Structure to design on (768 residues):
């Protein structure tokens, strides 16, 4: 019942790919490209104009690009001037401000709030209510669990905003805070309810407020088998590009 | 102005009870039952199809049941395959995924996010932005205060997800995290901003990150009278089934 | 495309000022006043009726007032019986319950949840997902950063609810909890992920769970210049009434 072409509004220069479905009550503003086979469910706004739209007569909406084979659930608000690689999946009621750039195959879950001007690699997974501040930079295959917040102003309110960075394959558990300008390496695990106030080196498990490194992630045992759970890519493949072939085989394909 | 029958969409095999009111712009999908005297406000989606709906031609929507005398505020998204006993009350913009089962007289406040495949007893109260993971099991008269999160994966991301359990009459204060598989007993109180990492026995007050039991709840004084505030059922009755008669009288009625 | 007068619903005694724009699918209930030059974007509900509306035939909607020169972004739900001074700006999907009173030039960001019966001074800034409980009282120029929660019941659930108070120019960082009845003075800074359980005196920096005062805010260095960052009004002016003239000049104007 969502795809009746009821009350759909399309702006100027909206380029819709093949086999795209658009839900009822969805609005797509000017200068938006939607890739082939993508579903935009009901009650979404794609290419939401920036603030100047409301106050300037000659406003031009920046380009917005939604990759092919994406699935945007209902009530999403995606601002103009953001781009998403193919295979995007979202939950409901996401908000993404302008200037966010996502790689391919990312997940943006229900009520995630992206403040814009941030970059994300491929296969990032942002779970419910994650909040990412401006100027954040996340690598590939980064998982951020619910209600975790990135911050960029160490002397609030000030004029100096520096986003955190996160390396590939790093996992941040629920209800954590990453403080401004902190660099978290690759293959790290941050425990629940942590406040990450200093840089964290690759392969570290850090937890607490302020977070302290308590061990190497390779020392954390699995619940499924003998040996270590981390690096997790050897033990988890659902939705990842190495599904069915294993991480090493995929990695060697990539490196060719 | 909400009940003008404007833009209401009803699917196949939608069974609406007597004296039900449905708000404008609300969609009810196939195979949903709405009990007598229930109000579904504007802009809701009841029986939201699961993901297969979008990709499989022969998708059948699972049964969804909303009990009688319920009041669902605007912008709720309730997936197909969940059930709610009578007397449900919700805030705005709730999200409930498939396979959630609620007893009678529950409260699901504004922006609560239920991940599905979880069970709730009677008279549970989930306040704003509570996030309950899959496989959680809550007893009766459990109160969860805002921004508290239940988690189910102790080695994220992994394939082993075990939800927490919570016993009857337990209270969890704001901004807490309950870790995977933790069993919190009945009549417990968890303080604000706690991380509950180990089982908590009945009648315990636990607080901190990780939460430690600091005393028996019966040692916590009331702010209204001499003596203890807990078990709270002797001091609080608003909206509870013992309202007007007292907890002991109600309990003895139940035990007959 | 938002201002096509599509599906706008206006109640009785709705007073719309000059040069107001109202977005598609927005509903304004009875007894709402919207000041001159205000924008109410699409899919908003202004003057949302209180619960009695649904159950009482003779319900009268309380007065709601939105000041002039305001900008309410999409999907806001503002209950009847709240008032906002001029220059209000909101994010998307805010919820404000009845009996909230805001001064002039406040910011209420995306998904903020105001429980009602709370007061706010001028130039308050509530960032994403801030949750303010009933009976809270905030002064002027108070900044509350994302996912911070105010609470009012120290023995949940009980019948004794006492909101926190916050003095002028105080800043509360992300993911903090302010416990019931706590008084935070003016010119304070509360660090991230704190639980404020006791009163905090003017000019204090407090952090931790429970929060402890670790120093005077005037001892916290700036990242932009030599010397202290706080009081911040000497180092930050964007959107503040002293923009372009400096804090001292503005202050002396005010005191005339």
């Amino acid at each position: 019942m969502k795809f009746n072409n009821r009350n759909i509004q399309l702006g100027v220069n909206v380029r819709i790919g093949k086999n795209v479905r658009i839900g009822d009550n969805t609005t797509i503003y000017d200068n938006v490209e939607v890739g082939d086979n993508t579903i935009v469910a009901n009650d979404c706004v794609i290419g939401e104009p920036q603030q100047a739209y409301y106050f300037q007569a000659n406003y031009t909406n920046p380009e917005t690009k939604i990759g092919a084979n994406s699935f945007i659930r209902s009530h999403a608000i995606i601002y103009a001037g953001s781009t998403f690689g193919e295979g995007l999946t979202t939950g409901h009621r996401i908000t993404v401000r302008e200037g966010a750039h996502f790689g391919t195959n990312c997940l943006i879950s229900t009520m995630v709030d992206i403040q814009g001007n941030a970059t994300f690699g491929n296969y990032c997974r942002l779970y419910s209510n994650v909040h990412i501040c401006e100027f954040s930079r996340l690598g590939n295959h980064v998982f951020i669990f619910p209600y975790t917040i990135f911050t960029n102003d160490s002397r609030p309110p000030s004029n100096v905003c520096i986003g955190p960075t996160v390396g590939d394959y790093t996992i941040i558990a629920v209800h954590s805070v990453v403080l401004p300008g902190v660099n978290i390496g690759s293959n790290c695990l941050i425990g629940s309810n942590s406040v990450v106030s200093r840089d964290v080196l690759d392969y570290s498990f850090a937890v607490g407020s302020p977070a302290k490194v308590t061990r190497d992630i390779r020392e954390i045992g699995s619940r499924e088998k003998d040996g270590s759970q981390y690096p997790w890519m050897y033990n988890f493949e659902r939705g990842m590009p190495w599904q069915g072939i294993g991480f090493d085989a995929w990695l060697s394909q990539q490196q060719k």
Observations:
- The helical segments of chain A are 247-255.
